[in-house]
Amino acid sequence: MKPAPFAYDAPRQLGEVLELLAREDEDVKVLAGGQSLVPLLNFRLARPDRLVDLNGVESLAYLRVEDGALRIGALARHADLERSAEVASGWPLLAEAVRHVGHPQIRVRGTVCGSVAHADPAAELPVALCVLDVRFHVRSVRGSRVLGADELFLGFLTTSLEPDELLVEIEVPAPPAGSGTGFAEHARTHGDFALGGAAALVAGEEARLALLGAGPVPVRFDGAPGDLPDAAVADLSLTGPDAEWRRALLRELARDALERAVA
């Protein structure tokens, strides 16, 4: 299928992007990697009046460490994260999680911020970012604001971003000194949508655990490493004929991720 007709803009400056997003008389969508948006356009599940292509805004294409934090610009690709030696050494959870995202062709084009803004509960990076106490930097012509994961993710494919706002940067603080991290997921075949997953961070006797596929948003729990798998899964509201199977799967994935983090 082909998308419905739309106007197309390819700005070169962030200010131009924000001005286009501020149009109140049009439904405006942003194109970065397009791995989620283009299929929606082709199936006509999304019918924007205008498409704003970010790829010419070079100021958003960065992945750098600054003041001890990893900063991921809106045009940083999954492959940038995957190939970065600084990410592998300082944020190994992200390096591990990103390898589960789709296939190499998808990771070359798909952007980290785009995956977050799409808010798919089966996506790997939002879950990994949740346990790292990430900060999401959002801009519009009205100003800027910074959101935590619990403030950004509202529901299935739904965030608190306003129509005129753009997620311009993800700020990931360094993990606590001496901490370990782990990631585990289950999919029918590698690269398919995950049926369940878990990201964990352990620092001494304290642990953070976030579950993928356990609800409409990433679900995070804090507690003792040994208690978290059972306690977290017991609190989940799972429905459907496979609810108990999913509960058992998530429990095992949580244990796996926490064991990797401890190791």
Structure, described:
It is a single chain. With 263 residues, the chain is α+β, with helices and mostly antiparallel strands. It has three domains: 50 residues, Uridine Diphospho-n-acetylenolpyruvylglucosamine Reductase, domain 2 (2-Layer Sandwich), CATH 3.30.43.10; 114 residues, 2-Layer Sandwich (Uridine Diphospho-n-acetylenolpyruvylglucosamine Reductase, domain 3); 83 residues, Enolase-like, domain 1 (2-Layer Sandwich). It is built from eleven helices and 14 strands. The strands form four sheets. Strands 4-5-10-6-7 form a five-stranded antiparallel β-sheet. A hairpin with a 2-residue loop joins β8 and β9. α5 runs antiparallel to α8 and α10 packs antiparallel against α11. It is globular and about 55 Å long. 43% of the residues are buried. The mean pLDDT is 95.
